[in-house]
């Protein structure tokens, strides 16, 4: 994949074939498949909602004890691995700030676990259905030929230059995208669920290896924190890339399933035909 | 727009009916097998019920991890300020008049002195006490399993919960029978080879190592066995949900 394939156009500019970009003007034909299946779209937005709930409540829970430890135990009388330079919602923690924030732990914990349940069940549905529909094999597993350092650095290079993706990419994922989605779905999410469960006193009573493998309950908490940061970094890059690729068209594709900018509206086959 | 065919409408209707009645059956079964927590109402009820139900299905008999003596934390955090006048009077008398009253759905309601409790077979555990804030420590707890004392008073078969009260006002919690009869649920009077200091809940603390610290209530004087938590406080199960925290704290 060479960089020449990236069409340098301002976002949202109509492409070669001029078709009115409003959705109503595009004739509905059965031949145009949805960019994202209904299941992918619905699970994506449920996961988005849950992610924000988990993030906000996670921050609130951390504020009640912004110190991190390694091993089985840790408290205000032990030396922390590190302490976040933020005020706390508990007077017990010495922060250097002259005030104590209001306690938000109650509802935060209720909502954190509820959102966790919903995102885990939704995620399971998404992952399982992906195996049946071929979503993993067709859309997300990188092509063998693409798995070289050259392809990887070319893809990386076009990303750091914020090059606008090719028209074909409105209908598929590029190499870096595929790899990051796979890492998020099959590494980061399982890790954040595992480390979350390993903090549950009752869960580890039934599955002690889930916490001893991590080095203890406080280690699990510290890893949970860092994996959450990795997920937030993914979210930031994800949103930046959507803006680079064309915020409105990508949002429309994830909400309605349709790609309605220029000739891409006709579907992936039409784009490919024109390019060959 | 696509026209919805009659077949689709019928199939959809059948699926919806099956779904709703399926949920109804699930709710009925969950209630019957004690999988619904007392704070299941409200917007967080779904998450609470899923957590409590799955914990009850997976962890009913599992034992909290125990540690070696060398792993006991020193010094111990979270001592609380000396409590009320009622406590101080009993403390002045060396706790000789401290009584634990047990009533409710039991055959032989009664009260126990500390000396009586200490005369029963004692057990010890070296377990983690974790706070919902995120910190934790390991300590040794010595006491009599709650189940031993419950057997002495004879719990009636319809009992479903054990409610326990501190001498301090408005400090009470409750647990289901699975936790009440769990071998690691102690009426603890000793800590790290000595009496429990006042700051850690002495002379008598309910120790529940598979749940967060706030369920291990300090200064226990009263236990009630019941089939329903609706009559206690605001009916949410314990003081924790009234303060916005979940009743089941195994997470």
CATH superfamily of chain B: Oxidoreductase, molybdopterin-binding domain
Terminal residue distance of chain B? 48 Å
* Neighbour order of strands in the largest sheet of chain A: 1-2
The string of secondary-structure elements of chain B, in order, is: HHHEEHEEHEEHEEEEH
- How large is the count of helical segments of chain A? 9
The end-to-end distance of chain A, rounded to whole angstroms, is 15 Å
Overview of this protein structure:
The complex is a heterodimer of chains A (276) and B (251). Chain A has a domain of 135 residues. Chain A is built from 9 helices and 2 strands. Chain A has a two-stranded antiparallel ribbon with strand order 1-2. In chain A, helix 1 runs antiparallel to helix 2. With 251 residues, chain B is α+β, with helices and mostly antiparallel strands. Chain B has one domain: Alpha-Beta Complex (Sulfite Oxidase, Chain A, domain 2). Chain B has 7 helices and 10 strands. In chain B, the strands form 2 sheets. Chain B has a 5-stranded mixed sheet. The longest helix of chain B is centred in the N-terminal third of the chain and has 27 residues. Chain B is elongated and about 80 Å long. The termini of chain B are far apart. The mean pLDDT of chain B is 93. The chains are: A mainly alpha (276), B alpha+beta (251). Chains A and B meet through helix 2, helix 6 and helix 8 of A and helix 2 and strand 4 of B.
């Amino acid at each position: 994949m060479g960089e020449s394939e990236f069409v340098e156009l301002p976002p949202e500019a109509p492409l070669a074939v001029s078709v009115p970009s409003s959705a109503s003007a595009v004739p509905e034909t059965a031949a145009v498949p949805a960019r994202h299946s209904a299941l992918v779209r619905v699970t994506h937005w449920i996961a988005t909602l849950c992610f924000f709930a988990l993030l906000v409540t996670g921050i609130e829970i951390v504020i009640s004890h912004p110190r991190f430890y390694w091993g089985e135990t840790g408290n205000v009388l032990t030396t922390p691995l590190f302490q976040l330079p933020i005020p706390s919602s508990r007077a017990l923690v010495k922060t250097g700030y002259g005030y104590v924030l209001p306690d938000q732990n109650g509802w935060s914990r209720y909502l954190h676990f509820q959102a966790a349940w919903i995102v885990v069940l939704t995620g399971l549905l998404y992952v399982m259905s992906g195996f049946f529909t071929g979503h993993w094999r067709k859309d997300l597993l990188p092509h063998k030929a693409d798995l070289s350092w050259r392809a990887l650095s070319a893809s990386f290079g076009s990303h750091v230059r914020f090059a606008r993706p090719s028209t074909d990419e409105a209908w598929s994922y590029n190499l870096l995208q595929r790899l990051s989605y796979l890492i998020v779905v099959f590494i980061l999410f399982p890790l954040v669920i595992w480390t979350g469960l390993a903090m549950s006193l009752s869960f580890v009573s039934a599955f002690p290896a889930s916490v001893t493998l991590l080095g203890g309950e406080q280690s699990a908490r510290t890893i949970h924190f860092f994996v959450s940061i990795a997920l937030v970094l993914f979210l930031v890059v994800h949103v930046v890339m959507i803006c680079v690729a064309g915020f409105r068209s990508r949002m429309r594709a994830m909400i309605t399933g349709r790609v309605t900018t220029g000739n891409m509206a006709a579907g992936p086959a039409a784009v490919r035909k024109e390019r060959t | 727009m696509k026209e919805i065919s009659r077949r689709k409408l019928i199939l959809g209707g059948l699926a919806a009916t099956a779904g709703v009645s399926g949920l109804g059956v699930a709710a009925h079964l969950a209630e019957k097998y004690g999988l619904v927590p007392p704070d299941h109402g409200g917007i967080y009820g779904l998450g609470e019920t899923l957590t409590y139900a799955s914990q009850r299905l997976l962890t009913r008999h599992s034992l909290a991890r125990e540690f070696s003596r060398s792993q006991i934390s020193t010094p111990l955090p979270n001592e609380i300020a000396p409590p009320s006048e009622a406590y101080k009077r009993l403390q002045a008398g060396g706790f000789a008049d401290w009584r634990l009253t047990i009533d409710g759905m039991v055959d032989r309601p009664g009260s126990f002195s500390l000396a009586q409790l200490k005369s029963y077979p004692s057990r010890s555990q070296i377990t983690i006490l974790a706070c919902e804030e995120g910190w934790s420590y390991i300590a040794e707890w010595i006491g009599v399993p709650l189940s031993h004392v419950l057997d002495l008073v004879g719990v009636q078969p319809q009992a479903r919960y054990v409610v326990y009260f501190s001498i301090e006002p408005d400090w009470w919690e409750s647990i289901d029978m699975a936790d009440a009869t769990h071998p690691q649920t102690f009426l603890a009077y000793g800590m790290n080879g000595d009496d429990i200091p006042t700051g850690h809940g002495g002379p008598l603390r309910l120790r529940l190592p598979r749940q967060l610290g706030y369920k291990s209530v300090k200064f226990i004087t009263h236990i009630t066995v019941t089939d329903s938590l609706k009559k206690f406080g605001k009916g949410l199960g314990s003081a924790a949900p009234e303060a916005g925290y979940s009743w089941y704290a195994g997470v």
